[in-house]
Design brief:
Helix 6 packs antiparallel against helix 7. The chain starts with a helix and ends in an 8-residue tail after the last strand. A five-stranded mixed sheet has the order 1-2-3-5-4. The protein has twelve helices and five strands. With 373 residues, the protein is α+β, with helices and mostly antiparallel strands. 65% of the residues lie in helices and 10% in strands.
């Protein structure tokens, strides 16, 4: 009878240890395949670990009367600490809370039934001492979990910034060329019957604007292939403003004039030059959309010792009602360019000018000071 009772006590004491060891073997044995499958598998470790901790608590307070060997309990605690670290790393928050609480209790309270004659404060001290390895196990699992969360957050922010840049490029460059195509197509339709030669010229300009739009889209798509691919397709800068002004004048009824001293291109950094080009493109696109019959537009770049001032002014023309557009979240158009200018330490403003005209004014520093977001 005594041998049978001893065997039962030993089996009861070994049961939580064997259960914790089996759970770890199950986790390690299935730790194969692609990363997503491994994460999904390990994320289901919380409930088995909580069951092992509950079983440990039950045996800790029921088995001492039968004389459970403390060696089993020490092995059991070591395995529970490994499970604690694993669930802290992989389990979802809802399962983690319950499993973590049960395992910490099992680790902290296991020696108390084995200690007799101790005061309450001594029992609290023993439990507090065994909390230290539990805290270390939680820290060992929490650090890589935090690093993974930071990495995912950084990837999300990078993707969001890339989407915003794609939207800005499409708006700033493709929309400008497409609006020129529309203007040329409208002009060609009216002169096709009476003056086919002008229609042919309009078609040539449509072809050129379409090629420019395709080039802008190619540059935008290259951004999806990473920074190295994007670096091979630099953005336009103010050195291309003369071509832009000439194409704008040829495409519509508005005659545009560019005033830019030769030293202006050297006064701006590459990033500031790209922003200046975007500002002029957006201003000319707005003139084409909202004042297509304006007789004259002037683009003036004035360099000083510390800044470059950009002014785009158009005379009064027969205004057409702008098409109502749905509000788009995120910075597009002048709002986006205002953000660009502020990020470089500059300013941008636009408003009525003269007798019914419109003026856009931007000031970019020659040595930009980045604004903290």
């Amino acid at each position: 009878m005594g041998a049978s009772t001893g065997f039962i006590a030993t089996a009861l004491g070994a049961l939580p240890t064997l259960a914790a060891a089996g759970t770890l073997v199950w986790a390690v044995a299935r730790h194969r395949g692609d990363s997503r499958r491994r994460r999904d598998h390990l994320s289901r470790l919380g409930r088995p670990a909580a069951a092992c901790a509950a079983l440990s608590l039950v045996t800790s307070f029921t088995a001492p009367a039968t004389g459970v060997d403390a060696g089993w309990k020490l092995a059991e605690v070591a395995l529970l600490l490994l499970l604690l670290s694993a669930i802290t790393r992989w389990s979802p928050p809802r399962e983690l809370a319950a499993a973590l609480a049960l395992i910490v209790l099992a680790v902290a309270l296991w020696p108390l039934p084995l200690v007799t004659g101790e005061s309450f404060l001594e029992a609290v001290g023993i439990a507090a001492f065994w909390l230290l390895p539990a805290v270390a196990a939680v820290a060992a699992g929490a650090y890589p979990r935090r690093q993974e969360l930071r990495r995912r957050h950084a990837v999300t922010e990078a993707r969001s910034a890339q989407r915003l840049q794609l939207a800005r490029d499409l708006h700033d460059f493709v929309a400008h060329d497409v609006s020129g195509i529309v203007v040329q197509a409208q002009a060609a339709r009216f002169v096709a019957a009476t003056d086919p030669s002008h229609a042919v010229l309009a078609l040539e300009r449509i072809e050129k604007a379409g090629l420019n739009a395709l080039a802008a889209m190619d540059r935008t798509v290259q951004m999806l292939h990473g920074p190295e691919a994007h670096a091979t397709a630099p953005l336009p800068d103010i050195s291309q403003l003369p071509t832009l002004i000439a194409d704008f004048t040829a495409a519509g009824a508005t005659e545009a004039e560019l005033v830019m001293p030769p030293e202006t291109a050297q006064a701006l950094t590459r990033e500031a030059g790209a922003v200046a080009y975007r500002i002029v493109v957006e201003a000319l696109t707005n003139i084409r959309r909202h004042a297509p019959a304006a007789p004259r537009a002037t683009v003036v770049l004035t360099p000083t010792a510390t800044t470059v001032r950009i002014q785009v002014t158009n005379d009064r023309g027969a205004r057409t009602a702008p098409a109502r557009r749905r509000a788009t979240p995120g910075g597009l158009g002048l709002n986006s360019l205002t953000e660009h200018a502020r990020a470089l330490g500059g300013t941008l403003s636009a408003g009525p000018h003269g007798n019914g005209g419109w003026q856009l004014t931007a000031v970019l520093p020659t040595t930009p000071t980045m604004e903290t977001p």
